Amino acid sequence: MKRMLLGVLALIVFASVGAFAKVYKFKAGNIQVDIPSDWEVENTGGKLSAYSPGDVALFFIEEFSEAEDAEDEEEGKQLILDYITDDIGDDYETGEMGFETINDMDIYYVDYSYEDPDYGVAICTTFVIMAGETYSIITVDVLEDGYEDYEEVMDEIVGSIKALK
To answer: Mean pLDDT in each 10-residue stretch from start to end of the chain (165 residues)?
Structure first.
């Protein structure tokens, strides 16, 4: 019984680590992130985009020098709201907004959802992160129909973000 339990635990650890076999460096933002190996990734100078199989979940990182002008948390959140409006328009519903730390880096974040006429409702978080002296804006976008399947994966992706050394 003990061997079977150890075998199951080893399989769980292997499956979790194996799902994140690729580390991508986004040099423009001075950060790196782990993306599942079965995702399609485009990494240009100013943007890193990752798409799950079937495009159910999306992950984007872009340079965001505009954040340098934010003098406090409220201005940081407003910059994110302006970015979202520029990206998808003003027909979205905001949820929680706040300030957190990921791997010793400060972030401002906004949770929101919107409805796309072709794909349905998307549940999203956009946040600004500072690594060194560089700001990036990151968006996590998951279709509501696939949210349960991708919530943990997206949490792992976001949790893997680290400043480049």
So the answer is: 38 44 89 95 91 95 86 83 93 92 89 92 93 89 94 93 90
pLDDT of residue 21: 63
Alpha helices in 63-161 (DSSP H): 73-88, 147-159
Tokens of 19: 């799902």
Return the amino acid letter for 41: V
30, part of any domain: yes
Give the pairing of strands 134-143 and 57-63.
antiparallel
The Cα 65–Cα 28 span in angstroms is: 10
Question: Which of 87, 94, 124, 126 has the alpha carbon at shortest distance from 108?
Answer: 126
Tell me whether residue 47 is in a domain. yes
> How confident is the model at residue 10, as a pLDDT?
38
Q: How far apart are CA 31 and CA 104, in angstroms?
A: 12
Residue range(s) defining the domain that contains residue 76 = 22-163
Structural domain includes residue 38: yes
If one counts the domains in the chain, the total is 1
Interhelix angle 2-19/147-159, rounded to 10 degrees, is: 80
DSSP state of 44: -
Non-local (6+) Cβ contacts of 15 within 8 A are: none
